[in-house]
Give the backbone structure.
Amino acid sequence: MTRPRKAGDSQKWPEACGRCAEHHKIAVRWPDGGICGYCYQQAKRTRGTCACGHEGVLPGRVDSLPACRRCSGVRLNVDCIGCGKEDELHSGSRCWSCILALTVDRILSPPDNQPPSPELQAVGTALKSMKRANSGLTWIQQPHVTEFLQQLATEPVITHARLDELPASRTREYVRGLLVEHNALPRRDELSARFSDWAEQALDRITSPSHREITRRYIRWHHQRRMNQMDEVTRGTFLRAKQAVTVAIELQNWLSDQGTELAEVNQAHLDRWQAEGPTTRSIASRFLDWAIRTNLIDPSLKLQPHRRGTSRRLDAAAQSELVANLSQRAEINPRDRAAAILVLVFGQQVSDIVQLTWDKVTVTEELVTITLGTVEIALTSPIDEPWRELVAAPTHHQTAAHPNSNWVFRGGSPGRHIQASTLTQRLSTAFSSRAARLGTLHELTKLAPVAIIAEALGYSPATIDRHALASSANYMEYIETLRKVSAR
Ligand SMILES: [Zn+2]
Ligand SMILES: [Zn+2]
Ligand SMILES: [Zn+2]
């Protein structure tokens, strides 16, 4: 921001500025003339690449273009002793960013030299990386902001609930936003909040303090972080996260019973633990992957993969028959038929389907097109028929409970879409969505390249590979060809 200029005064300041030609007090004498205070200020803040290639502050002028100190002969101290960069200096030969960083560290240092909590570190990082260091410094130095941050620094743990107990203010909400943005607090979202409450209680079941601390980190930096990055936490994510944490706790408590710390776990432990319990123990691989990524355990450790194959599966003929039934049977309402087709024919997850909005549905004379996530699905006759019916119904998106609802699958309460579990329940009267999905996958892998299927169905390539292996030798040949082509 440049200061607004006062009018010049040629009586008081007879010498015109070498840059703006106005009559103000001359602040400095440089090779291109006497420079007024305004232009001097501006010169210190001019950054860019000089004609000589030097990048940094360009306070001088050569051929009326900004130039570096060396090319222009301008003498000016813009060398920060803190970061070593060229920048406008604030004080003590340090730039504004370095002063901001020092100020943040001073304000946020916890009492009694305690190490700062991860949340507090995240606040610090966020504040230090504010784009405009000078406005950041101005903001942080306001007494009420300084006071709020100092209070925050005394909190051993920062949570949404703890923030709620502090006096309501814009500063509080701004800092809350920073914490969420930097993944130090989960986004406030119904399922995400429920997961956090659940996780707090789950931690109490952990018998060893060190395992409790590890699990706390796993919850925060893996699960809550992922939830923060989602627009809306789906029921599937919520349930999977609970399951993963539950199994992680079981494993660690078992290790504690053996007198072992997680850091000392070996393959024999894992094999024994898995053999002694239900097959769902293989879910602990999610926790172990995280523990490997964060260098807590030996990276070669592995669980036996969970064996599928016991799910009922619809073959292609049964699927075609169901599709025919679903698109014609009038006794099933068109909304359920529409959803069923997405699951049955396109293998989409119910948790994604319930979030579909009408602006993602396009109806033309020959096609109904639906965008689910990054996947575009084109429906042709006869399976587009339930969608056409829905669109044609005069009340398709307007009811008293949902005056402006844009959800295709609206729920029982105003403004909300249907719960994934409710829809699954309704569809399971006609078919089991899981069996149908596995069936779809099984058929599709014979026909399409793996990446397209993975994207279309929202599966990891590993899942697809397992199905592909089981489903077709042709598919293997196809992959071979791909490898040869890409190797060239
Ligand atoms: Zn000037
Ligand atoms: Zn230069
Ligand atoms: Zn600096």
Remarks:
- The radius of gyration is 32 Å.
- The CA atoms of residues 297 and 472 lie 37 Å apart.
- Residues 316-444 form a domain with the Topoisomerase I; Chain A, domain 3 fold (CATH 3.90.15).
